Structures are given as C-alpha cells and as structure tokens.
Amino acid sequence: MTGANHLFSFALQFAVASGATVIATSSSNDKLAIAKKLGAKHLINYKEKPDWDQEVLKIVGIDSITAICRLANIIPDERYWCRPCG
Fold first, then answer.
1. CA distances from 60 to 43, 54, 57 (A)
2. Domains, the chain
3. Does the N terminus or the C terminus of the chain have fewer Cβ atoms within 10 A?
4. Mean pLDDT value across residues 55-73
C-alpha cells in the first residue's frame, strides 16, 4: 500500500481484517508509525530506501503479491508486480 491519508487508513484496516499481510510505503516515518498501529506488518520509507521496490520483493517474492493499493503514483510497472489472476 502506498500513500498515507484517510483512504489509505481505511484500505489498510480492510486489508488487515481480510487477513492480508500489508507492506506500507510512505516518505514519512510518522505516517509509517500510524500504518504500523493500524496493522501493517512491514514499513518502508521510500525516500530513505530508493530501491524500496527491491525491499518489497525481498519480503514477499514476486509470486506472492496478489493486490496493490496505490494511492500515490510511485509504483513503477505495477502491472508486472501481481501474479496472474492475483
């Protein structure tokens, strides 16, 4: 999940309640702290880790990503990230 606003908070809580393992990304450590309180399992500050996409792949592997909730326009080639019929 990317972004950290009210819609992000709702989507994160919905994903956690559905049993998803959530990886939250933001450029703000304060917003990542909120994401953690809401149930995100992994936190990545994409300003501190410019190769954040590789961090995501290290955490779950390319075949494990089933959905992306993009609330900011920072995900490169996201159509290649999700497994077929994710």
1. 13, 10, 5
2. 6-80 (3.40.50.720)
3. C
4. 67
